[in-house]
Amino acid sequence: MKPRSVVMVLAWLCWWPGSFVLPAQVPKPAPRPLRVGILIYDGVFNTEFVAPLDVFQHAEARTKKVEVFTVAPHLGSVLTAEGLKVIPHRTFADAPNVDILVVPSGKHYEKDMHDPALVAWIRERSARARIVHANCWGAFLLGAARILAAVGPPLFRPTPAGFRRLFPERS
Question: What are the distances in angstroms from CA 95 to CA 8, 34, 60?
Answer without folding.
Answer: 26, 14, 18
